[in-house]
Design goal:
Layout lengths: L1 H21 L1 E6 L4 H14 L4 E4 L11 E7 L1 H4 L8 E5 L14 E4 L5 H11 L5 E6 L8 H10 L3 E6 L6 H6 L7 E4 L8 H14 L3 E3 L2 H5 L4 E4 L2 H16 L7 E2 L5 E5 H7 L5 H6 L2 E3 L1
Parallel strand pairs: 1-2, 1-3, 3-4, 4-5, 5-11, 6-7, 6-8, 8-9, 9-10, 12-13
Antiparallel strand pairs: 10-12
């Protein structure tokens, strides 16, 4: 009897070893602390197993030949060179879209919720919103443009995408929105999002009463009326769902979105732009800045 139990246990371990060998997933973090570690921890919990991880601040990752999926956290980690036969899920990498020519399959985790969620929230904050300009710069942002325009049309919002050639184009681009746009939304674009550009946006928005919306809490702190983004934990969970789809050989979209939005509001910016938050919006907000 004991021998039978032992044999059964050995067979179970062997089966599990085969599964692990066939589905070897590793993670690479730009840095093994802070937001990267927070997102990775949520990823690992949602993935349902311990996942080996590498931190770039401790050296270059060395993936073994059994690795099938690599999940990266941060732009630096995403931009590393990985073996051609490895599928790649990249998270927390604004402006980066990994081409399938570089990996087996590539899936990007968005920094903000899907367009219906984001635009519906903006419409609730500003019910008369009918014209919205979206500012962006990095070429890799272009894949999201058709989707956001289509969703805007469904909600009765005309979306105008404004691609800047250089950051210095921002003041002129903003001046062109006067009388033509009801609000401006800033994508999480690393080439535009700087302290100086956020100051320019804040001064323009408050001075002309044209609401400026962002995609991270930091944009709200710097003068946006509101930002619709996603927590690091939600990004990690979305990365886990994408990695599971790959490991189970299920089809997955090239861009996956966090399930839940993180809403932050600014009382001062709203007052400057003539926006009044409803009681429901205040209750939904994760952050309300003075």
């Amino acid at each position: 009897m004991k021998r039978r139990i032992l044999n059964t246990f050995i067979l179970f371990l062997a089966a599990q070893t085969c599964v692990w060998a066939a589905d070897k997933t590793v993670a690479v973090l730009t840095r093994g602390s802070g937001a990267y570690l927070e997102a990775f921890s949520a990823f690992q919990a949602a993935y349902g197993r311990n996942v080996k991880y590498y931190s770039l601040n401790e050296g270059k990752p060395e993936l073994d030949k059994n690795t099938k999926i690599v999940v990266t956290f941060g732009g630096k980690a995403a931009d590393q060179s990985y073996p051609r036969g490895v599928s790649h899920v990249h998270c927390m990498a604004p402006g980066i879209f990994i081409s399938d020519s570089r990996t087996e399959t590539s899936i990007k985790v968005s920094l903000f919720p899907d367009f219906p969620v984001s635009l519906q929230l903006l419409k609730r904050i500003q019910p008369d919103l009918k014209r919205l300009a979206i500012l962006w710069m990095v070429p890799e942002t272009s894949p999201i443009v058709p989707g956001v325009k289509a969703e805007g049309a469904r909600l009765g919002i005309q979306i105008t995408t404004v691609r800047l050639k250089v950051p210095d184009d921002l003041p002129e681009a903003l001046r062109n929105t006067i009388g033509t746009q009801d609000a401006v939304w800033l994508a999480p674009d690393p080439l535009i999002v700087t302290h100086e550009s956020l100051r320019i946006l804040r001064d323009f928005s408050w001075g002309n009463k044209i609401p400026f919306y962002g995609s991270t809490n930091s944009m709200t702190r710097e003068g946006a009326v509101a930002s619709v983004g996603a927590s690091f934990a939600e990004m990690g969970k979305a990365a886990a769902a994408a990695a599971k789809a790959l490991s189970e050989q299920r089809e997955s979209p090239k861009i996956v979105f966090p399930a839940n939005a993180e809403l932050s509001l600014s009382a001062t910016a709203a007052e400057k732009c003539g926006i009044k938050f409803s009681k429901d919006m205040l209750e939904e907000a994760g952050y309300l800045y003075p």
